[in-house]
Amino acid sequence: MASSRIAARYSKSLLDLAIEKGQLEQVKSDMDGVAEICSSSKDLVNLLKNPIVNSGDKKAVLNTVFSSSSDTTKQFIGFLVDKKREQELPLVAEQFVASYDQMKGIAKATVVSAVQLSTETMAKVKTYVVGLLGKGDIEINNVVDTSLIGGVIIKHEDKLLDMSVSKELREIRKTLIYN
What we know:
The chain is an alpha+beta fold. The protein has 8 helices and 4 strands; from the N terminus they run H-H-H-H-H-H-E-H-E-E-E-H. It has a 4-stranded mixed beta sheet with strand order 2-1-3-4. A hairpin with a 2-residue loop joins strand 3 (151-156) and strand 4. The radius of gyration is 21 Å and the shape is elongated.
């Protein structure tokens, strides 16, 4: 719990700094990259958490890994290392992106389907989800799960709309067993 509060404070500071410097879009892009790299590289996360590795070495590695980032982002990452909060970097990046999306009114939804959906179908699903949630700007991500057999599952924050064939089969099975 304390970690998420710490990450929220640092991400808010970075958001305010990016707005002040007029680099919000660049820093958002950088934080997307940081979150992606941290989620895919367990070695980097372990390095950030390792108390034996000194701050200078951590800064050198982070500067190399995030060399294409803006100066503001690099300075902020260096600041986290100086304050011995480098292990919070993945959470700070996630919090920053979430705060940015909230500020811009962007919602995110995941559509799970049995097969990869075409762009035309994704557009129809997006229109449906916009009407369902009442939000104007929604980013939709398609995830394939062949166990669904057919239909879709739509996930947004803590909401779940299951319109899959496998769910219907489970419901039929329950009805047959308990009646």
